[in-house]
């Protein structure tokens, strides 16, 4: 299982997705842990069995066990947070901001890897899940820690292409 197998599985009409999948991962300027953690977290957020199997297996050769677990934790915690905070935002009643979430989120404070790497993965998952409030929050934390826009932009590019590959492959499977 590999990135190459995933690219080969994409149909001809998804040539742009195939080429982008190759380029966003193989030419990334992100450090290895940030890159592959983003890949794992967004693959899990895609919910595509094929994408998860191919990319997580390849990521195991690039991540420590702790980083792999933290990337999985980012996908898990943001699956919850993105629904909650997106809903609170979309309702449009600011009084909800005064109510405590009462959701356990301790992994954000102690993810087992560099907190900024974890923030990046949470941001990328939030892009896949479409939570503007979480995107703003994680981007603000990263920028406040001195990050430039480029690595944040790169993580979102990776998330978008992995999501496109997942949507394409799952669509093809449904049509088969």
From TrEMBL:
A Gene Ontology biological process term: response to oxidative stress
Disulfide bond is among the record's keywords: yes
Single GO term (MF): disulfide oxidoreductase activity
Catalysed reactions, as listed in the record: N(6)-[(R)-dihydrolipoyl]-L-lysyl-[lipoyl-carrier protein] + a hydroperoxide = N(6)-[(R)-lipoyl]-L-lysyl-[lipoyl-carrier protein] + an alcohol + H2O
Domain Carboxymuconolactone decarboxylase-like, chain residue ranges per copy: 95-172
InterPro entries noted in UniProt: AhpD, AhpD-like, AhpD_core, CMD-like
Cystine bridges: 131-134
Functional summary from the UniProt entry: Antioxidant protein with alkyl hydroperoxidase activity. Required for the reduction of the AhpC active site cysteine residues and for the regeneration of the AhpC enzyme activity.
Family: Belongs to the AhpD family.
PANTHER family reported for this sequence: ALKYL HYDROPEROXIDE REDUCTASE AHPD (PTHR33930:SF7)
Assembly description: Homotrimer.
Name this polypeptide is given: Alkyl hydroperoxide reductase AhpD
Primary gene name: ahpD
């Amino acid at each position: 299982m590999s990135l190459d197998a995933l690219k080969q599985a994409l149909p001809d009409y998804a040539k742009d997705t195939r080429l982008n999948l190759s380029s966003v991962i193989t030419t990334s300027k992100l450090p290895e842990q940030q890159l592959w953690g983003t890949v794992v977290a967004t693959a899990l957020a895609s919910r595509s069995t094929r994408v998860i199997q191919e990319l997580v297996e390849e990521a195991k050769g690039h991540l420590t066990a702790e980083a792999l677990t933290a990337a999985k934790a980012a996908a898990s915690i943001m699956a919850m947070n993105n629904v909650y905070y997106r809903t609170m935002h979309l309702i449009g009643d600011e009084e909800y901001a005064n109510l405590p979430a009462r959701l356990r989120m301790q992994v954000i404070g102690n993810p087992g890897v560099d907190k900024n790497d974890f923030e990046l993965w949470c941001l990328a998952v939030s892009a896949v899940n479409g939570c503007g409030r979480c995107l703003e929050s994680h981007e603000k934390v990263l920028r406040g820690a001195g990050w430039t826009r480029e690595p944040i932009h790169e993580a979102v590019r990776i998330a978008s292409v992995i999501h496109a590959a997942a949507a394409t492959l799952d669509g093809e499977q449904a049509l088969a």
